[in-house]
Design brief:
There is one protein chain. This protein is an alpha/beta fold. It has a single domain, classed as 3-Layer(aba) Sandwich (Aminopeptidase). 34% of the residues lie in helices and 20% in strands. The chain has ten helices and twelve strands. The strands form three sheets. It has an eight-stranded mixed beta sheet, sandwiched between helices. Strands 1-7 form a two-stranded antiparallel ribbon. The longest helix is centred in the C-terminal third of the chain and has 20 residues. InterPro entries: Peptidase_M14 (IPR000834). This is Peptidase. Belongs to the peptidase M14 family. It comes from Lacimicrobium alkaliphilum.
Length: 309
């Protein structure tokens, strides 16, 4: 059952949306906990020369400068279909970033022989370093993949993809659902907006979010089948739901992704899905979580390649 959070968030007044004062108070409490340069940029520097690493923008936050990178796979051909893989939209979701990097390092070369690859492994580097869902302006990038987006993390990667002038056939966005969603991020969201917080049950296992307006259940099943070889698939709760949404099939729910401003909603890809790994499960290690993200990407691309002429 869904539960209601009754304790107050330490910032703000219950029932009153945050002003700039509370937002500044929240920002002042954030601390750098890991290095985007060491964990991400250094791995991009080590890629083979035939990977086209492009800087598509920069985030300037206080004294911090974060160059943003997207990668075109080897052997790009304008007449081939393209796959877009995005990670780190929510910086705290570590396996999304490391899974995208792992795919780049270990697997992408093989798939680039038959399709074009675009990979943005860490869309929100400040949030990666501070282990956050929001950017410094208390905005969620994964609710702002919209026209004229006020969130630079979202706007800059959308502009980069558009500049490629290629049709995206498949888009896989790599995410996690964590215990901190209920412990920190959902309470913070409710406090920011001055509303009552409603927590959801955190699923133990991997699941997918598809686009309710472009349902491709066989495609998503192929992704789930691939991931199930690495880690377990989440079961529905006693209401037949995952994170409050009805289950379409085991391990799969649907959202209206464009309406919600989600990352997979900004492309017109026929095949699209958001992955959700549960890193806090006693049944999964961090390495398994990274491998599950890679398996999700390879499962998706294998499904597509079987259907290409």
């Amino acid at each position: 059952m869904t539960s209601v959070m009754t304790t107050s968030y330490p910032i703000g007044t219950p029932g009153r949306a945050w002003s700039d004062k509370e937002k500044a108070q929240w920002l002042a409490a954030q601390q750098i906990k890991r290095s985007y340069s060491d964990d991400v940029v250094s791995q991009l520097d080590a890629l083979p020369a035939n990977f086209d690493v492009q800087q598509y923008g920069q985030l300037d936050y206080a004294e911090q400068r974060y160059p943003l990178f997207g990668i075109r796979g080897p052997g790009w051909q304008d007449d081939r279909p393209a796959a877009l893989i995005t990670g780190g939209v929510h910086g705290y979701e570590t396996s999304g970033v490391q899974g995208a990097l792992g795919f780049l390092k270990d697997v992408a070369q093989d798939y680039s022989e038959r399709m074009n690859l675009l990979i943005a492994p860490c869309i929100s580097p400040w949030a990666y370093e501070t282990i956050n869902r929001w950017n410094p302006e208390t905005l969620d990038p994964n609710r702002n993949f919209t026209a004229y987006s006020p969130v630079p993390e979202s706007a800059l990667v959308m502009a980069w993809v558009q500049k490629q002038r290629t049709d995206i056939l498949v888009h896989i966005d790599l995410h996690e659902t964590t215990d901190s969603d209920n412990a920190e991020f959902r309470p913070a969201l409710a406090a920011r907006d001055g509303v009552t917080n409603h927590n959801w049950n955190i699923p133990d296992g991997f699941y997918l979010v598809g686009d309710s307006n472009k349902q491709e259940p066989d495609f998503q099943q192929a992704v789930l089948d691939s991931v199930s070889k690495v880690t377990h698939i989440a079961e529905a709760d006693n209401e037949g739901k995952l994170i409050g949404s009805p289950v379409a099939r085991r391990g799969l729910i649907y959202y209206p992704t464009k309406e919600y401003g989600l990352c997979i909603g900004f492309t017109d890809a026929r095949y699209k899905t958001t992955t959700e790994v549960y890193p806090d499960s006693p049944r999964a290690t961090p390495q398994q979580c990274n491998e599950a993200q890679i398996a999700a990407v390879t499962g998706a691309l294998d499904y597509i390649l079987k259907r290409l002429p």
